[in-house]
Write a structure and sequence with these properties.
Keywords: Ribonucleoprotein, Ribosomal protein, RNA-binding, rRNA-binding. The protein is of the alpha+beta class and about 200 residues long. It has five helices and 13 strands.
């Protein structure tokens, strides 16, 4: 995803206010062996980019004065009650060094699973994103989680996820946390659901 930015020479509260009044958002790029670089971006373009999942979880190609470098979105500040981006931070990416980044989970097929179709279970998303470590070229935009085989009372854990090559998940000391759980519907499993689940289990034996 391409991002266009411009060099910024002035800093400080007053300069930032003038930038915002002119429809710009102040920002900074840091990291690597280079010194931090002050930048400014078109506010409207940035505001709409922030609505895109890809902007938050992928390596971005940033163009500054015709030169392109790879960066990651690291932080941004919004106005407390206005739709206004006050400031934004990017980190430089080195192709040869691993990065850590939060990546969204995309869940699919839960509505077709035995847990839902036969047992009318409730699928609970315990996690909606995970932090991964990988080289920049291996960073996935998302991780797909197929829930088509879920059954009642089953849990899907971090170790059950199918990861792209070169990608590992950081759990920061938590041992194999749950990603998805399935609980019975209010009042428990109905007779039809229980019979259907038993029949399905018998067919698989």
């Amino acid at each position: 995803m391409k991002v266009v930015a411009f060099e910024r020479n002035l800093q400080g509260t007053g300069a930032s206010r003038r930038l915002r009044r002119a429809g710009k958002t102040p920002g900074i790029i840091y990291g690597g062996e280079q010194a931090p670089q002050l930048i400014e971006l078109d506010h409207n373009a940035l505001f709409h980019a922030l609505k895109k999942e890809q902007f938050h979880s992928s390596v971005l190609d940033m163009d500054i004065a015709g030169k392109t470098s790879q960066v990651l979105l690291r932080d941004y500040q919004m106005h407390p009650y206005k739709q206004l981006v006050l400031h934004i931070d990017f980190q430089r990416v080195d192709a040869g060094h691993k990065i850590s980044m939060k990546v969204p989970l995309h869940f699919a097929n839960s509505e077709n699973s035995p847990a839902v179709k036969l047992s009318h279970g409730l699928v609970n998303h315990v996690l909606n994103e995970v932090e991964v470590s990988c080289l920049p070229a291996d960073l996935p935009e998302f991780i797909a989680v197929d829930l088509g085989e879920l059954v009642l009372h089953q849990s899907v854990h971090i170790n059950d996820l199918k990861l792209p090559k070169g990608v590992t998940i950081l759990t920061h000391g938590v041992d194999n946390p749950a990603v998805v759980t399935v609980s019975p519907p209010p009042g428990g499993v109905g007779e039809e659901g229980a019979e259907g689940a038993a029949a399905a289990e018998g067919e698989t034996k």
